[in-house]
Design a protein that fits this description.
- With 193 residues, the protein is of the alpha/beta class.
- The protein contains seven helices and five strands.
- Strands 2-1-3-4-5 form a five-stranded parallel sheet, sandwiched between helices.
- Helix 1 packs across helix 7.
């Protein structure tokens, strides 16, 4: 395959702590698809970077973790981001939610830094891959809606989502809807669909 978008950078974020889990499998499939299409892609696990939630910025210190590195050095320079998360109680994982919540500390307030961050948050392509035990398609729709609204708010494009079913680690590979193939296609087409 010729490289469609060698200059485009895709960031794949996995919001599950399981390195061999279903969300990670969907992310790895998307990564393979992106790389096969000539896209520069990186896969990161959110729990390597996020150890705490958004504090009260007026009073509490920010958690001493690697969130700033993740957000400023990986997310902002990326042209697209694929979030891979398990469905926990019909929502995204706490790690995934904290990724969005903690960004507030970088774009809120006055001055050149928040303005620069807001500008770089805009205009990305965003995708979603979810893994759930339930086969019911509606189980993922709350997360889909949240990413769509985030895309609208940041003037970005939501390019699609994949829903894989699996409970035990790696079980998503047995889903007859073939979500790993769909995730690979999403990665390959991320900047052209």
């Amino acid at each position: 395959m010729n490289s469609h978008h060698p200059e485009k950078r895709l960031l794949v974020l996995v919001g599950s702590p399981r390195r061999d889990g279903n969300s990670a499998a969907l992310g790895a499939a998307a990564l393979r698809g992106a790389e096969a299409a000539g896209t520069a892609a990186t896969l990161l696990f959110l729990d390597d970077y996020i150890q705490g939630f958004l504090p009260d910025l007026r009073h509490a210190p920010t958690p001493a973790d690697r969130y700033a590195e993740l957000f400023l050095e990986h997310f902002l320079p990326a042209d697209g981001m694929l979030l891979c998360t398990p469905i926990y109680w019909y929502g995204m994982s706490a790690q995934a939610k904290a990724f969005f919540d903690r960004s507030f500390g970088h774009y809120a307030g006055q001055g050149p830094e928040p303005e620069r961050v807001k500008a770089r948050m805009a205009g990305k392509r965003l995708g979603l891959a979810v893994a759930s035990e339930e086969t019911y398609p509606g189980a993922a729709l709350g997360i889909v809606h949240q990413i769509q609204e985030y895309a609208r708010y940041t003037h970005s494009d939501f390019v699609g989502y994949v829903h894989g079913v699996g409970n035990l680690r790696g079980e998503v590979a047995a889903d007859p809807r073939r979500p790993l193939e769909a995730a690979a296609m999403l990665g390959a087409d991320f900047f052209s669909r």
